[in-house]
Design brief:
Layout: E1 3-7, E2 10-13, E3 18-25, E4 34-39, E5 46-51, E6 58-60, E7 68-73, E8 78-83, E9 92-100, E10 103-106, E11 110-115
């Protein structure tokens, strides 16, 4: 069974930092790209960042480029999202995602709240 478990969210002041973790199980972690998405109240879920399985190449949404860094530890089946210089508009529930056997799997999400 594919499982994704996010952690590391919380309340932080603008300009602060948080590191999110996504612990994965139930599939061959090394072989799959992992993505981070977020959903703010009243808004659609949007892609934030992703990291490939093969060469570790990364993608960032323009809104987080230069502030967020995605990384993965294949030995721990975990993907991280280091978030620096947080802004109030980063407030959202953050989810990790894997596309496995034609199905998108999601974790339960972790709340990030940035106060101004």
């Amino acid at each position: 069974e594919v499982q994704l478990v996010e952690s590391g969210g919380g309340l932080v002041q603008a300009g602060g930092s948080l590191r999110l973790s996504c612990a994965a199980s139930g599939f061959t972690f090394d072989d799959h790209a992992i993505g981070w998405f977020r959903q703010a109240p009243g808004k659609e879920r949007e892609g934030v960042s992703c990291i490939s399985s093969s060469d570790g190449s990364t993608y960032y949404a323009d809104s987080v480029k230069g502030r967020f860094t995605i990384s993965r530890d294949n030995a721990k089946n975990t993907v991280y999202l280091q978030m620096n210089s947080l802004k109030p508009e980063d407030t959202a529930v953050y989810y990790c995602n894997v596309h496995y056997w034609y199905t998108d799997y999601w974790g339960q999400g972790t709340q990030v709240t940035v106060s101004s």
